[in-house]
Amino acid sequence: MELTIENLSKRYGQNWALRQLSLRCGPGMLGLVGPNGAGKTTLMRMIATLLTPTEGTILWNGQDIRTHGAALRQVLGYLPQDFGVYPEFTGRQFLRYLAAMKGLPRSLAYRRVDEVLEMVQVEQVADRKLPTYSGGMKQRIGIAQALLNDPELLIVDEPTVGLDPAERVRFRTLLASLTSNRIIILSTHIISDVEAVANRLLILQEGQVLADTPPQALLAHATGKVWSVTTNQTTALQLQASYQASTMVNQMDGVTLRLISATRPHEAAIEVSPSLEEAYLLATGRQEVSAREEDK
Ligand SMILES: Nc1ncnc2c1ncn2[C@@H]1O[C@H](COP(=O)(O)OP(=O)(O)OP(=O)(O)O)[C@@H](O)[C@H]1O
User: Fold this and answer.
1) What is the pLDDT of residue 293?
2) Strand runs (DSSP E) across the chain, as ranges?
3) Tell me: the pLDDT tens digits for 24-39?
4) Are residues 106 and 130 in the same domain?
5) Among 25, 82, 100, 277, which residue is least crowded by beta carbons within 10 Å?
6) Do 189 and 104 share a structural domain?
7) Domain shared by 208 and 262, yes or no
8) Ligand 1 centre and the CA of 232: distance in Å?
9) Is 15 in the same domain as 138?
10) Are residues 209 and 62 in the same domain?
């Protein structure tokens, strides 16, 4: 299974939501990260054949999805950002309904619904009405419907928005269990969602690819550029204004900052191992500063 994207662009009116994106992707999880408006949803909707590109091509196993969209849709699972459920249904009824919509014969549909309910671990509440579900459980039903056809390509758009931290961790574990032998594209602006799960990160910013990299390489690039310093309130505020700070924590003996800087930002600063989030901030930071300057 291979997804190939060549020079893909999408324009809405005068605005380019995505510019000249090229990508070749095999089994594993691709973490699509970037701030709001970066073009993540636009890209995913084009891959899912829900949106027509302005320019460029998307190939699934070498076939253009403009002309062979049906072949892709057969092996596609998609969880959109605004996944809605029907309130009058239980989880099981809802999935059976969607299985029927997808054309699964009844006996196969019933069996497959039981399988996916088990995979996403909601069997225990499967016969409760959907409005009684927590946000995390609803997202599990969302993933369950995307898994009904055992997809080779699973696209999940910002699935952790609105979930509490414990639900987020559970959801992340669930996705990690699904990575073998399929392509998963997961979009998020929360880096920890893809940390330890994605084998590749595609960082988008303003419709363009800022980096296409294994997480380890992004981390390696940030090594030697993250610092920790504990200082008084005044100096901390000065440092925060001059450097990009990833965290700022009040301690008994002052304020501890973690700063991202190519050079030692303060004589008392010590070098620390970067987190993936800090590596991401470093990759996107320069553009954020220049964007802020343009805003002035
Ligand atoms: N239907 C539309 N009409 C006009 N502009 C749009 C439309 N959909 C998206 N855009 C614009 O295209 C750009 C990319 O949007 P997109 O939703 O793909 O980004 P995103 O990275 O998914 O952001 P978010 O995390 O907020 O969903 C944004 O500037 C957005 O305002």
Assistant:
1) 40
2) 3-12, 15-25, 28-33, 55-60, 63-64, 76-79, 153-157, 183-188, 200-205, 208-213, 226-231, 244-251, 254-260, 270-271
3) 999 999 999 998 899 9
4) yes
5) 82
6) yes
7) no
8) 42
9) yes
10) yes
- Structurally, the chain folds into a number of domains equal to 2
Residue 224 shares a structural domain with residue 205: no
Ligand 1 centroid, distance to 38 Cα (angstroms): 7
Domain identity same for 136 and 200? yes
> In terms of residue numbers, what domain contains 282?
220-295
Helices 91-101 + 106-119 axis angle, to 10: 130
Confidence at residue 169, expressed as pLDDT on a 0 to 100 scale:
86
Q: Quick one: which atom of ligand 1 is closest to the CA of 41?
A: 22
Q: What is the rounded distance in angstroms from the CA atom of residue 186 to the CA atom of residue 183?
A: 10
The band of 110, judged by pLDDT with boundaries at 50, 70 and 90, is: very high
- Evaluate if residue 290 carries a pLDDT over 90: no
Segment 243-262 shows an average pLDDT of 92
Give the residues surrounding ligand 1 with Cβ less than 6 Å away. Answer: 12, 15, 17, 34, 36-42, 158, 189
Q: Looking at the CA of residue 81, tell me the nearest atom of ligand 1.
A: 27
Q: From ligand 1's centre to the CA of 17, what distance in Å?
A: 6
Q: Give pTM, 2 decimals.
A: 0.88
Mean pLDDT to the nearest integer, 167-184: 87
SS3 label, residue 296:
coil
- What was the ipTM of the complex prediction? 0.96
